[in-house]
Every structure is written in structure tokens, then in C-alpha cells.
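FW: tagging you since you asked about this chain on Friday. Here's the raw sequence from the shared folder, copied in full. Didn't touch anything.
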Amino acid sequence: MSFLALLIGLGVERLLTQIFHIREFRWLDRVFDFVFTRLKGKGVIVARAGAAALALALVLPIAGLSYAMAGALMHIPYFLFSIVVLLFSLGPRDLNQEVEDFGSAVSNDNAEEQRKVAKELLEFDPPGDLAEFARSMERAVYIQANNRIFAVVFWFIVLGSVGPLGAAGAWAFRVLDLMRRRVAFQYIRKDNEEREVIDLAVCGLHGWFAWIPARLLAIGYALAGSFEEAVHDWRDYYNSCAPRFFDITNDVIGCVGQGAARKETGLSASDSSYPVSRMKAAMTLVTRTLWMIWLPLIAILTLYNWLL
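HL: got it, structure written out here
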């Protein structure tokens, strides 16, 4: 049932672009700020415990409703509820639409719109060098695909396979990612000590839940693209990897994706359309990985479970 709900959720999402702004859950920013402010000056362990407690408080109502609906009326209420929760857990923004928006901004020579979309994807100010900018934007597509789609799908399926917790799993990851985005956009302007504590606490918590789906996604990128290039870049990365494990996770997704899609375009890095071409190549690889690798594999595992 989780697989069917997943298929419907992914299919319906493409038709409901008008609800995407609702999925940003801006009202939660005030809740996050209220808790983060009270964690100021605390150690990383206390801050992480506070962030975990906040996430749990937001997830428990979904878990409770799931259990209340499970088993009733042939599981139909829970099935419909799972689809709705999944729809609001994916995103919050449509990744493919952002790539198209950036391409349109480049075509119209709209620098302000380019910078706006770039900052949403990168979650930091974009670099000035064109080649570095293109690499960063392509890498951001691979990373955001995990945050917005694949990790949500992973926890939806994994927790849905052990009980009526698929909706809670998808929503739990969305809550953690919303917290992480709030830290990225808001607390980057705070003083160094506060930023470091909140960053380590929230991003570390998010990183634990992103670790497994990120590695599976990296394998998916390799299988859906240029396998040898992807594996080569994956191995090379560990010669000089980042010190923090959640940064390593993002770097692995980025470098494997870039390796897997390296042959997708032949444009020169000096071409003004180069960033757009790299982003579209990345989006093609993301879509291919979802529909040709992940979903068929989930279908096989679901069928195997039924046969047992």
C-alpha cells in the first residue's frame, strides 16, 4: 500500500503546482526561532536534544493520526491520509520548476531572478566565477533532490514497511529539512558561536537521517549515468573530504552526480548557457534515477514482501 501511495503522491504532485507555496510552512519559522533562541549559549548536545524534541513534537500528531486510522475501513482513510502527508512532505519547492525558472531568467538576462533562484538552491550567496557557479548550481540540484524527494521517499517506504508510520517518516524528514533550511537562511547572519552551535545541532540531526538515503541516491546516480566516472569521483573525494559528516554526505551526492552526468553536455565552461545546461543535465539524471532506478527497485521489494 505504501508503494501505491507513493506512486499516486508523486504523480499528483506534478499536477498541483499551485499548492507548492503552502508546502513552505513559513509559520513554522516562528516556532523554530522560538526554540533556537532558547538554545543560544547551550552546548551542542543540549541544542541537539532541543532540536530533536521540537521535531518529535511536530511529528507525533501525524504518527498518532496514522495509528488512529490504521485498520479502519480497509485502511482507506490511512491510505488517503498518507498520500496527502506525502504531498506536503515533498519539496517544499519544485526542483524541476526552479531549474526552468533559472533557465528563463538566463534567457531573459534577468540577473536579479538568477540570483534569487541560485540562492534558493545553493542556500548561500552564489560564487562570481562562471565555471565555479555552474558546478555549484549543478551540485545543488543533486543535493536538493535528496532533501526534497529521495530522503522523503526513503523514510516513507522504510517506516511504512514496519507499520502505519510511512506518513510520519516522510513528515519527520521534511521537518528536519525545514529546520536545516531555517538555520541556513536565518542564522548565517548571527554571531559565530551561536551559528556554530545551532548549525552543528540541527544539521547534525538532519545529517543522521540523510546519511543512508544519500548513499543509496549516489549509487542510483552512478547506475543511471556514467558509472565509471561516478565511482572514480566518489573514490577521489575521500582523498580530501570535509571534516563534518553531514558535509561529507552533501559532497558525496554532489561529486557522484557530477561524475555520472559529465558526458551529458559538451558546452564550454565559458558559454553563458553553461550553468543552465549543467542544471538540466543534473535534473535529467535525477528524474532518471527516480523513475528508472528507485521506483522499480521499490516495486520489486514490495512484490517480494507480498510474496512472502
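FW: The chain has twelve helices and no strands.
HL: agreed, and The first helix runs from residue 2 to 13.
FW: great, closing this out.
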